Each structure stands twice: as C-alpha cells, then as structure tokens.
UniProtKB/TrEMBL annotation, chains A, B:
Pfam families: RibD_C. Residues 9-185 form the Bacterial bifunctional deaminase-reductase C-terminal domain. InterPro entries: DHFR-like_dom_sf, RibDG_C, Riboflavin_Biosynth_HTPR. It comes from Nocardia callitridis. SUPFAM superfamilies: Dihydrofolate reductase-like. This is Dihydrofolate reductase family protein. The lineage of its organism: Bacteria, Bacillati, Actinomycetota, Actinomycetes, Mycobacteriales.
Length: 214, 214
C-alpha cells in the first residue's frame, strides 16, 4: 500500500472553527476551551495524555488509538508549535508538549523563520520554510515508508487541502460553538466532490467525518 | 497500559450465528456464505486479503486496520484452524490461509489432539490441550507485552467469555440471516451487565458492537 497524506483527529466546533481568537502562551486555542473540544478524546483509554488506567474502548477509542498507526512523520504549522510570531527571540520555546511530546516521529514545522532542529523524547522537530509539496517530499524521506500526518492548525490543513495533496481526512465535530477564530469549513459539503464521505455520530456527542480521495 | 484479552472483528449474523451448519474443507463456514458475512471488511482498504490498491477509508476501515494493532498473539479453536475432527491422520493440513496467514504472530490452537508447532510466513502455530486460563498464560508469554486476541470460532469465544477472561470485545453484526449453526448470542443484552456497550451502525450495513469490562 502506497504511503498516504493523512489529516487525522482534527477537531472543529459545530460552527466550523478549529481554534478560537487570540492564541497566547496561556491559551493555545485562543478564547476557545480545548477541554470541551477534546473531551471525547480525553475520555478514551488510548488518549496519549492519560495518566490513569481507565478510559473507554468504544468508537472514540478506535480513533485515538489509530493516531500513531503507520504514521512516520508529521507536518504542522508554526502556530501549532507555539504562540510566538515573527523571528525567534531565542530558542527556549520547545513546544506545548513537555518532555515527551505525543508524536514519537520526526515533526516538520512550517515557518518563514527556520531554526535548528532539536529532539525531545522520541520526537525530533525540524523547521522548514517550504511549500506544502516540498515539505511533503522531506517528510516522506523521513517517514521510512509510512504515512505523513498533517497535524494542523487550520491554515496549514487548508493549505494542503487547497493544493490537493491530501489522501484521507478525519474531522471530528465537537458539540460546542466557538463563534470566532480560525474557521476550517462551513461543513463537510465543501469536500464531498473531491472525497468520499462518511459521517458517524459517536455516543460521546462528537460526530466523526471520514473522507478519502475519489 | 496492561495488556488486554481482546475479541475483535468477530462477525455474527442478525440472528446471532457465527457460522453455519456442516463445516467442511470446501465450506469453512458451513452452509453460511463467508462472503456475505465479511463483505463489509472486504470493501476496506486495509482488508488483509486485498490485492488491488482500492478500498474504503471510513469507519469499517478503522476496524480492519486495528486488527493487528498491539496484538502479540492469537488463541483460536481447532475448528477455526481446520475442518478435521479427532486425532490427526497426518500433519499435511496447515490452515485455511495459504503461504502468508494474516496473523503475523504466534497462534495457539486449542485442541485435545496436540501436534508439533510449525511456521508459515510470519505466523507460528502452536497446539495446546489447555484450559482458557492456561492457554492465556502461554499466549501472554509469547506476546511480548502486547495484547492477546481470541480469534474464534463461536465455542472458543464463548468459553473465554464464560470464564470472564475477556477485557474488550468487538462484535460486528452483518445484515444477513444464517438460521442454524453455531449460535453466539441472542443479542448484545447478554453482555451489558458485565461490559460497557456501544452500538455503532456503519454505512456498509454492518452494526459494530463495542464492549469493555465494567
């Protein structure tokens, strides 16, 4: 099976926002509350940040445990990596994820201000000023024959979709309104001409949207 | 996370049968047609027997691609391994699965007539005359810290459930009636006292039932 470009476990509100307004160090999702966006995932047994042995093993857990399945690299936008804009004042900031980031693969951060690569736990962060297509070439070189995940945020995901570089996409619609911020879509109909589409409601209240290239 | 005992991708008819009547070399599911039971899985991109590059990437594909995810060994009943009953006439029979069985792990076949282990592709078959509990001890020893899947058929799956040895269970109800044969259940209500239960209909017509221990 040829390796894929996957958007996966990307969460938006019922009104189509992937993030709120005003990202900052304290508020990575701006005015939106990441806990309400992610509570469906946080309840599952395979949620990467889980510290106790409980959690559910239903539909939502299939989704969270597939997160790393056959993924060899991730590409993310700079705003997913951190709140700073423009040239780096220094290289102290190493991401939101502490000593063991949940990626466990090479991660390519798209930025107009590259900085040296560094490793944190099992994850190595690289910084690229590159087009989506060129970034994919580098990510696949690093992915060892596995898939490449496009990790977010909204602008990065849309850039890869606009360039028609995405093979499969999972968008989870969480039962919350954000009202303003980073808009991902008006609804799944934006993509049904280019992709097959399945919509699967979960008992948790989230609605999973699966897309794959026609 | 402690390794689990998982029943997974076990398919039954709407009237609760896992297999028809009269298993034989030509008819591993007896009078029931395995293609109608398995068509939901066969349509997916990750179906192990797929030979062309197509296939779906929706809900059913999450299920098929999770088949091998963190599984380190399988336990199966003798009737899943082959149609012969009683003492082995010889050891020519090596399973239904050709040169590359889809397990890729140690497989423990429960039988009152043990025979020598053998390997086929990446799968090694062992033969045990053991209780479910003792078989699990050996399977976990071989699983390298990963989970153990209880692979079927009906009698074997029920034996592990009756002994309360199962942690998670996925039963796919296919939209077909079989009428007679190996009955698995009258319905999911048989297990809701011991397990949490989610029922998720798929666009393919199959209904996925997920259970995890209370």
């Amino acid at each position: 099976m040829a390796p894929l470009v996957r958007i996966q476990n990307f969460v938006v509100s019922t009104d189509g926002y992937g993030s709120g307004e005003g990202q900052s160090l304290e508020h990575p999702f701006g005015h939106a509350d990441p806990e309400t966006l992610m509570s469906w995932a946080g309840a599952t047994a395979h949620w990467p940040n889980r510290t106790d042995p409980g959690g559910t093993y239903g539909l939502d857990d299939y989704i969270t445990r597939d997160y790393a399945n056959n993924v060899g690299a991730e590409i993310m936008g700079r705003n997913k990596f951190g709140p700073e804009r423009g040239p780096w004042e220094n290289y102290d900031w190493q991401g939101w994820w502490g000593e063991e980031p949940p990626f466990h693969t090479p991660v390519f951060v798209l930025t107009h201000h590259p900085r040296p690569s560094f490793s944190k736990g099992e994850t190595t962060f690289h910084f690229l000023d590159a087009s989506p297509k060129d970034a994919l070439t580098q990510a696949f070189d690093a992915a060892g024959g596995k898939d490449v995940r496009i990790g977010g945020g909204v602008a990065t995901v849309r850039e890869f979709l606009d360039a028609d570089l995405v093979d499969t996409m999972h968008i989870a619609v969480a039962p919350v309104e954000i009202g303003r911020g980073e808009k991902f879509w008006t609804g799944p109909n934006e993509y049904v001409e280019r992709f097959h589409h399945e919509q699967i409601p979960s008992p948790s209240g989230v609605v999973h949207n699966f897309f794959w290239r026609r």
